[in-house]
Design a protein that fits this description.
The protein is an all-alpha fold. About 65% of the residues lie in helices and about 0% in strands. Helix 2 packs antiparallel against helix 3 and helix 6 runs antiparallel to helix 7 (about 120-135). Keywords: Membrane, Transmembrane, Transmembrane helix.
């Protein structure tokens, strides 16, 4: 029984090997940083070579550590991601317009004096506005690496009450 515990502790201290998809993800971040001008061509090529040569996960982290947000912001603002985001926003808007037309038709058929479709449409438009506002976090969430600013390490939450004194 003790030998199994020793094997588990030895296995947990070993370095984790990286996958091809993780290496490719770091390479995409580096290419986006080069396109933004954050890395010059020689430094970018050196980092790309190191990314493709990496065998362990901890070798990949230093390659993007000095880039803003670990390079995720540069990756999120690529033209392909912007086009995909616009397409998603157009699809969302067309769904809202379709639902609005259906609800307005039902309102006309019902003969009600109060325009009740305004209430569900208001919630649909608020959802659309949130979708458009959180566009820049979409890619980071899909990778599982990014967090919203209010969940990030720098956010400490409200620390003061209206009086300006620190909370208890």
């Amino acid at each position: 029984m003790e030998t199994n515990d020793a094997n588990w502790s030895a296995a947990s201290t070993k370095r984790m090997r990286t996958s091809d998809s993780e290496r490719e993800h770091v390479a995409e971040i580096l290419r986006a940083a080069m396109a933004e001008g954050r890395l010059d061509l020689t430094e970018g090529e050196e980092r790309l070579a190191k990314a493709y040569a990496a065998k362990f996960r901890d070798e990949l982290a230093p390659l993007t550590a000095d880039l803003p947000f670990g390079g995720l912001r540069a990756l999120a603002d690529t033209p392909d991601n912007r086009i995909a985001t616009r397409r998603a926003l157009r699809r969302h808007a067309s769904i809202i317009v379709s639902i609005g037309m259906i609800l307005t038709g039902l309102w006309i058929l019902s003969g009600a004096h109060f325009f009740w479709p305004a209430i569900p449409l208001m919630f649909l438009v608020i959802g659309f506005m949130k979708h458009a506002r959180l566009r820049r976090y979409r890619y980071e969430y899909s990778l599982g690496h990014g967090v919203a600013p209010w969940n990030g390490p720098g956010w400490a939450g409200p620390r003061q009450f209206h009086s300006g004194r620190p909370g208890c």
